[in-house]
Amino acid sequence: MFNNLKLSLFLAYKSITKGNKGTLFLTIFILSLIFINLVFIGSIFLGLTETINNQVINTLYGNVVIEPKKDEKYISDVSSIKQKIRNIPGVTGISAQYIIGAAFSYKDKSGAWSVRSINPDDEITVTTTHNFMIEGEYLSNLDTDEIIIGKEIAGGYGGDMEHLSLGGLKTGETIDVLFNNGVKRSYRVKGIFDVKFIQSNLNAFISQQEMESVIGMENSASQILIKTEDRGNEEKYIKQFLDIGIKEKINPWPVYSGIVKNIISSFDMIAMLISGIGLFVASVTIFIVVYMNTISKRRQIGILRAVGIEESVIINSYILQALFIVICGTGIGLLILLTVIKPFFVANPIEFPVGFVSLMILPEKVSINIISLLAVALMAGFIPSWMAVRETIIEAIWGD
Amino acid sequence: MIELDRIEDTANLLEVRDLSRFYTMGEVTVSALKNISFDIKQSEQAEFVAVMGKSGSGKSTLLHLLGLLDSPTSGQINSKGVNLLDLSESQKARFRLERFGYVFQEYALLPELTALENVYLPAMALGKKKEEYIKAAKEVLEQVGLGKRLYHRPREMSGGEQQRVAIARALINKPNILFADEPTANLDSTSSKQILELFQRLNREIGLTILMVTHEPDDKKYVSRVIWLKDGELAEQGM
Ligand SMILES: Nc1ncnc2c1ncn2[C@@H]1O[C@H](COP(=O)(O)OP(=O)(O)OP(=O)(O)O)[C@@H](O)[C@H]1O
Ligand SMILES: [Mg+2]
């Protein structure tokens, strides 16, 4: 048994090291390309999903959202809720917001959007909008007659909803805002932002102080956004919030992804489909490459059998060769992915309508690909050599 | 194979009985061999047998069958009381490895191995120790006059040299019988002579039984017996 394995290894080793180097390198090269392609496509889709999720968290909702109790319009006693939550380990940001619908008008254009109010010092601990000002500046606490707006409201930046925008509003200009409660104010536009996410670019922000004067309330909020240091543990945080006695409705961010959630699940399905097809194509290609390679050794298989080498030794030596080729191919592919392609896309993410997308290479997905390809290698080494030992020795040596 | 040692003295090295091989190609049946019977004796003086006959007379077919590389349509082959055709494929492989040496017309070496590796492969497959099989391989290569070509790959050697490597490979496990199918057909007369003289020496000095297909009438001078085939039938035996 041990001697047979040694013999298989010897034959495989000689075949690899002393066989045609050109063919070997080409085969390994093709396999690494196939593998890169397979991982790349899956990773770009994962990256896309990741970007959308990050956008929802970073520009709209944070990780966890507290909403008013059922049948109430606002959360009351916001400061004490904030106080309690702040002490929970892992909470890195809290921002209370009022949200109210309003009609904007500028020159002959008008439209309806929602206005959120923020305490800028709090808001920057939760969202990243302040990093994406394309004109002017972000709000500050004392701004009462100023507003910042998303590019889809301002218009003039080629947004996807340009036709519904105010058609080219600029920083420093004044707009009239008629809130849903009937209060009407004029604001100077302090800045315009573009977070590369359409849903977020449809928002406008004024300061908390200003909003409280508009709606005549204090220490209340339409929602409280909470940012946590980790993602994926939202339920754990929610449980802690409930434990410290918060009676309001609490939801994790995915509840708010709405249409985005549909888009993401479509992406996931497309990604699965494409990865499945990719894996199939990769398997077939690898099979063919290894198969052709083995078939071309038919005569040698015949000679080995004529000498009296056992069939299992011969088959195992071809399986070993196929495994070697696939391991090298995926190894080199992985190396190129991790040292060249991934760093490149991290440094130069692709700009999609939903934001900048980079590759997301998940070890578990890559492992599945590697394992599948190794299984294919087993088959690709086994089947042709098994066929070659099934035919007669005479056919193997002299057949065509 | 315990049984085999017990009757070793009495039984023939090879007993061929009514051996036939038909090839069916669609409607047509070609009978390459018809009811061949003969013995190769185990005696003091080992036999050196030439198989001769016109092209297409069935010489290669016969050698393939005797070498267990192909199966007959009917008939029997016994060696020292063992019915070889009853063996399983893996037993046949073992038999080829341990007891038969086979030399093909076109060398049939493994291109990726050196002369030395080609030769020691069968010994390695028997599970011999590395020092042992390397030593044995060097010895047989020396014996066939290739002591200076140990590390050459087949494509770095002449046809005659390659054929001698193939012979060394066939000899390394000390077979009972050496089969050779026109071993000199692709060689010039000098190389051919070298090989035939080598066969004669092996036959006389170490008592190796040899069955060689040839179509050179001149080769008769090296052998002890000739088996003539005509249209797949045994035409004549003797000199
Ligand atoms: N695979 C095959 N299928 C059909 N017929 C075959 C096959 N192999 C051999 N034959 C036929 O069997 C007969 C004997 O062939 P064989 O190769 O044994 O002849 P040979 O005596 O060795 O000839 P040569 O001297 O030319 O090598 C020939 O008529 C040949 O056509
Ligand atoms: Mg022939």
Features:
heterodimer; A: 400 residues; alpha+beta; 2 domains; 6-stranded mixed beta barrel; two-stranded antiparallel ribbon; 12 helices; 53% helix; elongated; B: 239 residues; alpha/beta; Rossmann fold; 6-stranded mixed sheet; 4-stranded antiparallel sheet; 7 helices; 10 strands; globular; disordered N terminus; binds adenosine-5'-triphosphate; binds magnesium ion
Short structural summary:
With 400 residues, chain A is α+β, with helices and mostly antiparallel strands. Chain A contains 12 helices and 12 strands.
Biggest sheet statistics of chain B:
6 strands, mixed
CATH homologous superfamily of chain B - what is it? P-loop containing nucleotide triphosphate hydrolases
> Helix segment count of chain B?
7
| Outline of chain B | globular
Helix content of chain B: 25-40%
Count up the domains of chain A: 2
- The stretches of 5 or more residues of chain B where confidence is low (pLDDT under 50) are 1-8
Counting helices, strands and paired strands, the structural category of chain B is: alpha/beta
Distance between the termini of chain B: 35 Å
Tell me the number of helical segments of chain A per DSSP (H or I, 4 or more residues long). 12
Topology (SSEs and partners):
The complex is a heterodimer of chains A (400) and B (239).
Chain A: H1 2-18, H2 21-61, E1 64-67, H3 78-86, E2 91-106, E3 109-118, H4 120-123, E4 133-136, E5 146-150, H5 151-154, E6 174-179, E7 184-193, E8 203-207, H6 208-215, E9 223-228, H7 234-243, E10 249-252, H8 258-295, H9 298-307, H10 311-347, E11 350-352, E12 355-357, H11 363-390, H12 393-398
Parallel strand pairs in A: 3-8, 5-7
Antiparallel strand pairs in A: 1-9, 1-10, 2-3, 2-6, 2-9, 4-7, 5-8, 6-7, 11-12
Chain B: H1 2-6, E1 14-25, E2 28-40, E3 48-53, H2 59-66, E4 74-79, E5 82-83, H3 89-99, E6 100-103, H4 115-125, H5 130-143, H6 159-171, E7 177-181, H7 189-205, E8 209-213, E9 225-230, E10 233-238
Parallel strand pairs in B: 3-8, 3-9, 6-7, 7-8
Antiparallel strand pairs in B: 1-2, 1-4, 4-5, 9-10
Bound molecules: adenosine-5'-triphosphate and magnesium ion.
Adenosine-5'-triphosphate is lined by residues 23, 25, 30, 32, 53, 55-61, 215 of chain B.
